[in-house]
Specification:
Length: 238
């Protein structure tokens, strides 16, 4: 993997992730936990944003300040990515939100596109791609292809995930080695250094079932976010 891998370990993230894993966690608690971890993701993903200086005046006197230079856009993958969007809008309240509709076909596990809110040409400089779970990596790779075809180079995309599988990360990084990924996951990985890019990982779940479900994982994040779980379908992944 060509990215720089930085292990991020934070007790608040670990505690929230542990709560998300529990089957007894309510939909309200699940939404709150996704929101909290997404804030951490947003902070960490934004550490390297370019700043622009300006001169201003306080009620007391002049000062030198900074603003964020690149124009940021948010691209949640429906529907689970919506659970991360409000947290990122707290950090970037003026950011446009471009929804992408993708689902994973049940038999082939291949991504199917059904919706795109991307305008004809990008009025932004950088995209934050939002998806709580990265299982096989197929859906994320399909979303990245849509964004690159739209006109945003992959080096200007930051992928934010709450939990990923080891296999999924390897898939995405093999397809897009220049991608900057920011994940808050579960089992610590060994840092891999490369001066060009950064990859933030707290941990991963190593197991991906034959149905493409992360184990132990979180279950279906969309259903758990929006309280649409059924007994016959507790673990389906969008």
């Amino acid at each position: 993997m060509a990215n720089t891998l930085n292990v991020l370990s934070h007790p608040l993230v670990h505690a929230e992730l542990s709560k998300l894993r529990q089957a007894s966690t309510t939909a309200k608690e699940f939404r709150e936990g996704i929101h909290t971890i997404s804030l951490f993701l947003g902070y960490e993903a934004s550490r390297t944003l370019e700043q622009q200086s300006f001169e201003g005046t306080t009620p007391v006197g002049p000062f030198s300040g900074t603003t964020i230079k690149p124009r940021i856009g948010l691209t949640p993958i429906l529907r689970a990515g919506l659970g991360m969007t409000d947290a990122l809008l707290e950090l970037f309240p003026a950011a446009p939100v471009y929804h992408l509709g993708l689902y994973r076909e049940k038999v082939t596990l291949q991504p199917v596109e059904y919706y795109s809110k991307l305008p004809p040409s990008p009025p932004i400089d950088q995209v934050y791609l939002l998806d709580p779970l990265l299982a096989t990596g197929g859906t994320v790779c399909a979303a990245l292809a849509m964004i690159v075809d739209w006109g945003i180079p992959v080096r200007n995309v930051k992928l934010l995930c709450v939990l990923a599988s080891e296999e999924g990360l390897q898939h995405v990084q093999s397809e897009y080695p220049e991608l900057e990924v920011n994940d808050f996951l579960a089992i610590l990985l060994t840092p891999i250094t490369h001066p060009a890019r950064q990859l933030w990982v707290a941990a991963v779940d190593k197991t991906l079932t034959s149905e493409g479900i992360i184990s132990p994982g979180l279950g279906d994040t969309g259903d758990r976010l929006y309280n649409t779980l059924t007994n016959a379908n507790p673990s389906r992944r969008e």
